[in-house]
Design a protein that fits this description.
By secondary structure, the protein is of the alpha/beta class. It has three domains: 3-95, no CATH class; 146-311, Reverse transcriptase/Diguanylate cyclase domain (Alpha-Beta Plaits, 2-Layer Sandwich); 322-575, TIM Barrel (Alpha-Beta Barrel). It is 57% helix and 17% strand. The protein is built from 21 helices and 17 strands. The N and C termini lie far apart (107 Å).
Length: 578
């Protein structure tokens, strides 16, 4: 029962009570206070009763009328406004605020409640819009997020089915973005993501690009750019005639990202790998199109990065094989299926062994003997390379400790580092800890890094190399000549050893220009007091040629293939100069 109905029901008993009290009082007054003589002379008993009844009725009517007037005014000035407050509160509770403003009210207590509610309603409306934006838009770049993209994909699917049209989903992943975060910090990484999103939007010209502030609006353009997570973006290109239109968009994006970014005085070069899936041939569901575009993006990365690939059905099989291999690598780490082989390094001066290069091999009970080229690239993609790298360093240090304890205190073993190990902050501390744990001196370890890994971020790499050198370890530049080879780097980089790639050694017997180039490399290295190692030496002719160039050491099948640990120790015992 409403409050106003309760008030109405209370009016009648109050009026009856007041009228009875008035009649009883009047009757008592005339029968008790007045003397009998006066009563008999002025008012008989019957008249007193009549007067009391009339007085009661009059009082009843007066009180009833007064209370009804009060009830009407209470309803008008209080209850009706309370009902409005209730409706407003219900609206706020159901809808999080509404678009309509509350009507202006008088400046009384109820008016103050109204004004407070108005402020609450506006704040809730702002909060509701903010929450909606957070739910559907990326906070950093302002682009639509995954939830928004999913809704837009459903809209595109519906329109394409109805109109019998094509559209493209382009999955974009920035190349080497993690190195930017690890080396320059997350603040620079965030600023870079913002600039990347701006560049991409510029390539989606005019009406080809839409970003909806409110979902559910009619289409206002042909394309949508969304940020899914981290350095992953997705482009939705509607109403295309075929794959050629999608490839033009992808190429425009690559061209737009080709110019360096200047972020807080840092010059950053950033490329992108993109995968393209076309509706309906590459999928008829949103998740299927996203998955296939993602697979195509991985193929673009595997093909050298900074390019784009269209999805093919063969990619699904490749992805399954990659996933199976990744799972097998994880199991191999748990079950200790990896082993180390050691490739002897020979001094050309007296053909004695001076050390080894540690090389990982995998003996899988299910897959057999697996070479690094088959599993290292997958390990690098899945971040498992860091776990593998730790295992290699730990086990190498154990073997060095054993060899030192058995008469070879000066033995040196070379270990290869991946780019992720270079840019991860814990590699230096991990190496320092293991050296201390196994009582390994700096002279016992050589760390090999490649040109391409260093040049990903030259400044950070040089800082990292100098930290390693502070431990006393030797630094070798591996595979020189296969990447961004420039002889000026030999003077600039803080390296101790230069390893010449085997492709040069193989080519010297047939290519005169290769001989001249090698002569220049060895001359510069010797003038800078950099130790030289020739890799992949396989015959006597090659040995004689690099001897004439004053090469210090060689590795290759001419002397020995990589050996298991026990055989390596036997080889060491048989060929050591000590």
């Amino acid at each position: 029962m409403k409050l106003q109905d309760k008030l109405l029901l209370s009016v009648i008993p109050v009026s009856i009570g007041c009228s009875i009290a008035q009649g009883a009082g009047t009757f008592w007054y005339y029968t008790t206070v007045k003397t009998n003589d006066t009563l008999s002379k002025s008012m008989p008993m019957e008249s007193a009763i009549d007067f009391a009844l009339f007085s009661s009725f009059t009082t009843f009517c007066a009180v009833l009328l007064t209370l009804l007037i009060v009830r009407i005014n209470v309803s008008l000035f209080f209850l009706q406004r309370i009902d409005k407050v209730k409706d407003i509160m219900h609206d706020i509770g159901e809808n999080g605020g509404g678009a309509e403003d509350i009507e202006p009210q008088e400046n009384d207590e109820i008016g103050e409640i109204y004004h407070s509610l108005e402020k609450m309603k506006r704040n809730l409306d702002i909060s509701h819009k903010s929450m909606k934006k957070l739910a559907y838009f990326d906070k950093l770049t302002g682009l639509p997020n995954r939830a928004s993209l999913q809704q837009e994909l459903l809209t595109s699917l519906s329109a394409a089915k109805r109109k019998n049209e094509h559209f493209a989903v382009i999955f974009l992943d920035l190349d080497n973005f993690k190195e930017v975060n690890d080396t320059l910090g997350h603040k620079v990484g965030d600023l870079l993501l913002i600039e990347v999103s701006v560049r991409i939007k510029k390539q989606l010209r005019g009406s080809d690009f839409i970003v909806r502030e409110e979902l559910g609006e009619p289409n206002t353009g042909k394309s949508l750019l969304a940020r899914l997570a981290g350095d992953e973006f997705t482009l939705l290109i509607n109403e295309i005639e075929g794959p050629n239109a999608a490839s033009k968009v992808a190429q425009r994006v690559l061209d737009g990202l080709s110019h360096p970014f200047i972020i807080e005085q840092n010059e950053i070069h950033m490329g992108a790998s993109m995968g393209i899936a076309i509706y309906p041939q590459d999928g008829v569901e949103a998740d299927e199109l996203l998955k296939n575009a993602d697979l195509a993006m991985f193929e673009a990365k595997n093909s050298g990065k900074n390019n784009f690939e269209f999805f093919t059905k063969a990619m699904s099989a490749i992805a399954f094989q990659r996933l199976s291999m990744e799972n097998s690598i994880r199991k191999a780490l748990d079950k200790q299926e990896f082993i180390l082989y050691f490739h002897p390094r020979i001094a050309l001066e007296d053909e004695s062994i001076v050390g080894f290069e540690a090389l990982i091999r995998w003996e899988s009970p299910e897959l057999g003997f697996i070479m690094p080229s088959q599993f290292i690239p997958i390990a690098e993609e899945s971040m498992l390379i860091c776990e593998i790298g730790y295992w290699v360093i730990d086990n190498t240090c154990q073997h060095i400790k054993y060899w030192k304890e058995n008469g070879y205190p000066d033995i040196q073993v070379s270990i290869n580092l991946s780019s992720m190990q270079i840019y991860r902050g814990d590699t230096y501390n991990m190496l320092k800890t293991l050296m201390s744990l196994y009582d390994i001196e700096g002279k016992n370890l050589e760390i090999e890094v490649t040109e391409s890994h260093i040049l990903d971020n030259e400044e950070i790499s040089i800082e990292f190399i100098n930290k390693l050198r502070s431990l006393g370890v030797t630094i070798a530049l591996d595979d020189f000549g296969t990447g961004y080879s420039s002889l000026r780097y030999l003077q600039k980089l803080p390296i101790d050893v230069l390893k010449i790639d085997r492709s040069f050694i193989i080519d010297i017997e047939e290519n005169k220009s290769t001989k001249q180039l090698l002569k220049s490399i060895f001359d510069i290295a010797n003038s800078l007091d950099i130790v030289t190692v020739a890799s992949g030496v396989e015959n006597y002719t090659q040995i004689n040629f690099i001897k004439d160039l004053q090469c210090d050491f060689v590795q290759g099948y001419y002397y020995s293939q990589p050996l298991p640990a026990e055989e390596a120790f036997t080889y060491l015992s048989s060929n050591s100069s000590t």
